[in-house]
Amino acid sequence: MTPPLSGQPVCRQLLFIGLFCATGLLSSCGGGGRTPIRLLRVASVLPTNESVTPVNSGRSRERLRSFQNNLRDVVPGLRIQPSLYSEAAVESELERQTISGLGPDLVTGDARVIQELSQAKLLDPVPVTPEQRNAIAPGLLQRVINSRGEVTGLPVSQSIQLACFDKRKLKEPPSSLALMSKQSSAGQVFGITQNFEDLYWSMSGFKAGSALVSSLRGKQPTEQQTQRLVSWLSWLRDASYQQNVMFLRDQATLRKQLISGQLHWISCWTSQLPELREAMKGNLGITSLPAGPAASASPISKLQVWGLGRNSSPRQRQTAEELMQFIVQPWAQKTWALRYRTNYPVNPAAATIINRQIPGIENLYLFKAKQEIKVGDEIVAAIDANPKLAKTIQNILNEVIFQAITPARASEKIQAIMRPS
Fold first, then answer.
1. Average pLDDT of the chain?
2. Residue 213: pLDDT above 80?
């Protein structure tokens, strides 16, 4: 769930609430008497391959409680009933609940999960207002539009990929893939997950994404584009040969091994920083990901998306849509990002403020390579909308990493499956 909105001066909050009342957004504004309870059942989905544990379940509930408390002035009487699911279990569980009429009002998860739940007819399309469209970067909104042109969920934040390292083990994190290779040969141990979304940062360093975009658009990639894709796949294969570069299945394993000292450096996401900070304290180092031979790393983002469950009463649906209208506005986006510094706004106006106010942010939130970011958004939008395509690409990458297929052959297969059928 989205982190809570932190305390601003009371007069500013009252002004903001007054604007909501004046526009009729909040049905509970005004009037005397006791504020009615407005209950929302909220199902949150953990990222890929993460399991529900007492620790992350407690962290999720605490965040939801804080979010609820900080929204009392915006949605009076709001009460949140939370539940937390693994990605592997959420579809069957929500199907059971929806059939019985007890499904959630809101579902929060990354864009791909929301798309899959929408395809399974467990979510209603989101009626995005003109104000919401103007508040969200167009490339991000495109990532939650299905083949029928429906918006399957509302983007409310994005996690950015970066590098996390143990300052006790690694004094100077690598600024390039070449330096990573040199340091691994000297005994430093690096951890990378083999999931495509976790590998895109390395792909962008070779400018290899343009070959996939050309294929997506039904065009034949140029010889140069194909060569860049082959070069990136060759790097994956060569990196897998290195004794001290570990390709692991999921981010949870990477974090566990960094905390235990088995790994000295990992690729990570801003949403995972609270867990790492809690465990490693001042020994946690954070920096940008290494550049490739052709460009700086331009990671894709993971979208945190809110979807609408199908069993809401009219009042519950109204409350959910009020929250959606509020949460993408610049004030809410900026306040949340500055307080927690784990997620980045989807609102471009708020993003500009964040870039100015957090020291060193320009090294983590990479707006310098805008074209590469657009390329990544287009690729991820296509993959999120087609789970079968995502699985096929992942299988090809696994074959490269484990030397079951040559980079040249893998390039041919990826380009072929990306073409419109």
1. 84
2. yes
The CATH number of the structural domain formed by 10-159+301-362 is 3.40.190.10
Residue 286 CA to residue 420 CA, distance in Å, equals 39
pLDDT tens, position by position, 377-387: 888 888 888 87
Q: Give the CA dihedral 411, 413, 414, 417, nearest 10 degrees.
A: 160
| 301-309 and 265-269 beta bridge pairing | unpaired
Per-domain boundaries in the chain: 10-159+301-362, 161-300+368-418
CATH superfamily entry for domain 161-300+368-418: Periplasmic binding protein-like II (3.40.190.10)
Residue 120 scores a pLDDT above 90: yes
Of 245-249, 268-272, 314-318, the range with the lowest mean pLDDT is: 268-272
